[in-house]
User: Fold this.
Amino acid sequence: MSSNAPVLSINVLAGFAPPTYCDGFGMAFFGGRLRPVAGADAMKQKNIYMNADTREYLAPGDFVDSEHPDIQDFASNRAGEGNDRQRAIRLYYAIRDEIRYDPYAFSLEPDRLRASTTLAAGRGYCVPKAVLLAACARAAGIPARIGLADVKNHLASQRLLALMQTDIFYYHGYTELWLGGGWVKATPAFNIELCERFGVKALEFDGREHALMHEFDTAGRRHMQYLTDHGPRADLPYAELTAAYRKHYPRLLAAPDALSGDMAAEMEQDRAQG
Assistant:
C-alpha cells in the first residue's frame, strides 16, 4: 500500500456517511473506494462499519448458537490467525472433515439441530453441519447465514433412498459467508474420507468462489443437481423445515429403525452387489 494513501481516523468517521463495507482489518469502502482506517482493529471495529443487513448475521440464534462456550472454543482453536477469508477457510475444512457426515443423524428434535449439539456429537447431515459452520463463523466474527436448497442425486445408499422414497433431498443445507464484501456459498457436508471412499470429488473452498456440490463424480457419473433454492436465512427455519420433511419423508419418519444405520457400510454393500 502506498505510504501516502489517505488515512481516515476513527474520530473523523462521524463526519462521513457510514461505509458500505469494512473487512475488519483496517480497510473500509467509502463512496465506492477502499480506504485504510487508522487503528481499525479487526474484531473490535467490524461491527462499527458493517451495514445493518450484515450485522444481523453476526448475532447468535436459537440454532446458530454461536455464543455457546463449546462453539466459541472450537471456532477460536480452528480459525487461527489471519484475515476473515483465511480463518473462514480453516473453519470450513475443520467442519467438513472433523464432523462426520451421517444422514442417520436426521432428527426433528430442535436440540438435535443446534450447532452446539452437532459439535458435541461429532457427526451430522448437511443441515446441522451448515448450521455449525455458520455458528463457528459468527463466533469468529465472520457474518454467516444458512442456505437451503432442494437437490437431486445426493450421495446415499439404496436403503436410505428406499426410506426416503425419492432421490430428491429437500432442504439440503449449505452456508453463506460474508467475505471480501460479498456472500460466498460453502457446503461442508461430505467429509474427505467419505468422498475418497466412494469416488466423489471432495468439495474445496477458497473463500472466493462458491463451493457447491459437483454435478459429476470422479467417474463422470451424475452426482448432484440443484433444483430449487429456498434462499438464505439468519437462523434455521425450523417450522418450515420440519413441515417439508413431514410432507416428503413420511416413511422415513414412521419407520422405527429408520434413523439408525451406517450409510458408508450400506454403500459398500451396494457397490459389492453391483
